[in-house]
Amino acid sequence: MNIARAKEILKSQFGYDSFRMNQEQAIDAVLQKKDCVVLMPTGGGKSLCYQIPALMLDGLTVVISPLIALMKDQVDALKNNGVEAAFLNSTQTGREQTEVFQAVRSGKLKLLYVAPERLLQSGDQFIDFLKSINVSLFAIDEAHCISSWGHDFRPEYIQLGRLKRYFPDVPLIALTATADKLVRNDIVERLAIRNAALFVSSFNRPNIFYKIEPKRNSYARLLEYLESRRAESGIVYCLSRNSADSLAADLRDEGFDALAYHAGLDKEMRDKHQELFLKDEVKIIVATIAFGMGIDKSNVRFVVHMDLPKNIESYYQETGRAGRDGLESEALLFFSWGDINKLKGFAEVEGNKSQTEIMLKKLNTMGAFGDLKTCRRKFLLNYFSEELTEDCGHCDNCNTTFEKFDGTIIAQKALSAVYRTGQRFGLSYLIDFLRGSQAKTIRDEHKNLKTYGVGADVSKNNWFDYFKDLIEQGYLKQTEGTYPTIVLTEKSMDVLRGTERVELFKVTIKEDKREKSLVSKLEHEYLKDLFDELRQVRTVFAREENVPPYVIFSDATLIEMATFLPQSEDEMRKISGVGDLKLQKYGADFLEAITDYCDRNNLTSRINLKTPKREIKTRTKRDQSGQTTYDVSLDMFKSGLSIPEIAESRGIAISTVETHLVRFIPSGEVALDDLVHVNKIEAIRNAIIRLNAGFAVAPVKESLGEAYSYGEIRAVLATM
Length: 720
Ligand code: ADP
Ligand code: ZN
What we know:
DNA helicase RecQ, DNA repair, Rossmann fold, metal ion binding, EC 5.6.2.4, ATP binding
């Protein structure tokens, strides 16, 4: 019942057709006044988990967020969907704040965003104020800031632990994109919400294509890369402020629309650059990691790392800023082992040996990721304790075959080059030497050696790969330090003597499978010139209202319009992202642009191509004939409808239908393998036994991860 209403709001206020990930479960829990912790990747849709309950509950939802810079945009976006929202922070004048207080008192406000320090400053004044009104929910955004284990600890968050004491009956929802178990436990502990329901979503970001290239001529490669993405927005990360500044300047010289962002710029400049980027007025931000925390720009199409991030967490978080709108996006990293050596210095935590070790270990894992020959996504998810059963088919390695060949001769050439030059030179020198380079850097005495020039038939790039491979296989070693040299190992002699055969990898790129992915198929079919026209319409509104364009409509929404060509208000309403208020405010202008375009090009509506929502006749009549709700689900199931279809047609949650059907397992009316794929049964059963979980489903679910649903676990439980 409640959930059906939540779904209506999802469509009417936000314009979306269905919930994502654990949104539905989290909303359900909040509506039942349960505390909960929601873990969802960036862009997953955490905000709706409290925004929808805020609209359904009497009273005010207080959102605590550390991102003052973002509050205004968040509130603008809500207002634009017809939601009464406001924020309180230090950037406002006294008068503006008074107005907000009045709005709260009048009871018409549904959501209030406040900074944590504001909430608990000047004694308990603000708390007392909240006590005098009706607070229905506390939402704590970026909840990992409360944990000193996290990567972004904020001492003022600690104070939030008092909330539960002051408001024991008001539910509290904590949200974060940090998956770490230590952090998760800390959140529960410090917020004093021991009985909180936990909702963990998969951290997979299927629309991001992961790609790593060797860091060689990376500037030239970057130019080429950006050239092919002229119309798109992206972030380029650098390690240092200096390199961010100079790279941004170089890119501008090359005619790209790029600005720098780092902590060394004064605040005014930083804010300006960020704002221009958010508003699509500037396409590329060249930044240090100072940029990004809370960047809510949905149409970032690519993230490039010029230098290696210091651990997988940072890499995941930074690349995660791409593609929040769900459209095809790319993460490109330029990788070199040299960077690992450089970062080792930064990993040192003074006077703390064990912490230093942890950092170094994380750095090495990052190195392993850079050098990986198998599915990148599998590795990433695995790092976050999530299992991907199949290769993703959507990363560089999944699109590459690594073929082995007999590389003994090549190995002998490489090793003897190292040996003859006295094990005192680095990779580049050795490769130049092998290729018989005429460069002055090559010492004259080396030019007389027999090995000089014996590798001229192999390209520079291939030599790099072969050396890397030889190092990896232990036939050579790279020393540490600022100027690493290549030296022989105990395995080298056998190769030089000719008693050991060496296998090397030959790299070939498979055909690009990306076209097959759903998102790109959709993108493929949209009318690009219409999309550009719609963007112009959007820009006009955005400038008029002084908000970022995505607050009007996201790129994803415009792409849908340019794909399905809605011709009327009713058709427009079917576009994802078009809610009632936006339809009213902007509908006519966008419709005009579309119909005009269609007239010019002799096109008609394609709205019926949009995933047809099958109309299913419900059997509510039988309800009245005394059948229980379980029987109704069973009947529909027997008549051949799938679980999602039953849920849709009855307006209840999928999980509810599953619960209904599980009841019929003991009697045999529903078979276990009707509900659970046979391949999964064994794993679920084992997990239940291993965890000795009794009838508790949650721990089993947590251990099995996203690929297994609560319903499937309950079904197996029912047979045990
Ligand atoms: P997070 O806070 O988890 O990073 P947001 O709450 O900002 O993510 O949501 C990211 C984007 O996804 C927003 O543009 C939001 O409107 C959109 N979104 C959220 N839920 C849904 C949904 N159920 N269907 C479609 N889009 C959604
Ligand atoms: Zn893959």
